[in-house]
Every structure is written in structure tokens, then in C-alpha cells.
Input
Amino acid sequence: MTLVWKDEYSVGNAELDAQHRKLMEICNRAQASLAQSDAGDLHLILNELAEYAKYHFRTEERLLEECGCPLLDGQRAGHMAYEEQLVELMLEATSSLPDKAAIHRHVYDWWMHHILGSDRQYAPYLK
Ligand SMILES: [Fe+2]
Ligand SMILES: [Fe+2]
Output
């Protein structure tokens, strides 16, 4: 399954949309390296995902803070929980190829839920 950006995914902010697109692109690369059973490559990509996710979350939190969005606390909690999940997944991926279902949950489902579910709720506040 490849994630493809659609205009309807927009949260109405060009910087955040660009970051979400980049995150989807990293998720697609993670999936491709898993399909090739390339544990070393997958580990590098998960590291990149963790770094970029952190950067993205901080950007999102800063922008929500600036506009006084009441959803900020919920966003922060969701971001922190995900960062922890990703650390666990990366630990799992150091010794062997992680379970496909775990990758699916943490890489695909989580990001689609993040972008299409929780993030779109703050869109009206950013305007
Ligand atoms: Fe986001
Ligand atoms: Fe978010």
C-alpha cells in the first residue's frame, strides 16, 4: 500500500502540508524496505521517520500555540505517545525485521489517522 497525497488531506497551512507529504514519503520508503526484507535500510528509515516526526510535531505545536488553539494539549499528548511507540518499534527493528503488522500500525495507520483524523480538526483554528 502506497500513501499518495490528496488535496483533501490539507490542514490549510502550506508548511504543515509539506511536512505531512514528506512524512508520507518516508512511510512509503519504510514499506518498500520492509518488502525487500532489508533490515539495515529499514532501521535507517525508521530513524529518519523518528527525527522528522519530532521536527514536525514541534512545528505543529508551535503554530497551534501561536493561534491559541484549544486542541494543543490533546495534540501534544498524541505526539508524545507516538514518539514513545516509535522508539519501541525502532528497538524491535535493531535485532531483526519487525513484524509487518507492527509497521503497518505505527507507520501507515498512525500517520493516516494523524493527518486525516486529529490534525484536520485544528485546521479551522489556523486560519
Ligand atoms: Fe501533523
Ligand atoms: Fe498532530
About this structure: Helices lie at 14-35, 39-66, 72-95, 100-126. The first helix runs from residue 14 to 35. The radius of gyration is 15 Å. The domain at 11-126 is CATH 1.20.120.50 (Four Helix Bundle (Hemerythrin (Met), subunit A)).
